[in-house]
Amino acid sequence: MTRLSMMLLGVIAVATGIALALTMPRQETLDEAPPPAAPVQKANLTPPPPVSPPRLADRPEDPVDPAVEAADLEDGSGS
């Protein structure tokens, strides 16, 4: 059991080392990479389209069933 635990610990250590080696940037790649160019904004941009007010639904909300309304009024809860 101890040998199995030590082998598992070794496998985890090797896998962690490989993962770190693949994800860590190298020093020479940091020095060679040019900085990203700043975006250039044009002076004559067209204005954005006007924002229209939200549209209302074509039909009203769900109609209320009169039987349900009457039952609500009878038991006193109301709607």
Describe the structure.
There is one protein chain. The protein has 3 helices and no strands. It has helices at 2-23, 27-32, 66-75. With 79 residues, it is mostly helical. The mean pLDDT is 77.
What's the helix and strand layout?
Elements: H1 2-23, H2 27-32, H3 66-75
Based on DSSP secondary structure assignment, what is the total number of beta strands?
0
Number of domains: 1
Whole-number mean pLDDT: 77
Sheet having the most strands: none
Q: Order of SSEs, N→C?
A: HHH
> Which spans of ≥5 residues are poorly predicted at pLDDT below 50?
none
> Roughly how much helix do the residues carry, as a percent range?
40-55%
Query: How far is the first residue's CA from the last residue's CA?
Result: 69 Å
**Tally of separate helices:** 3
Shape: flat
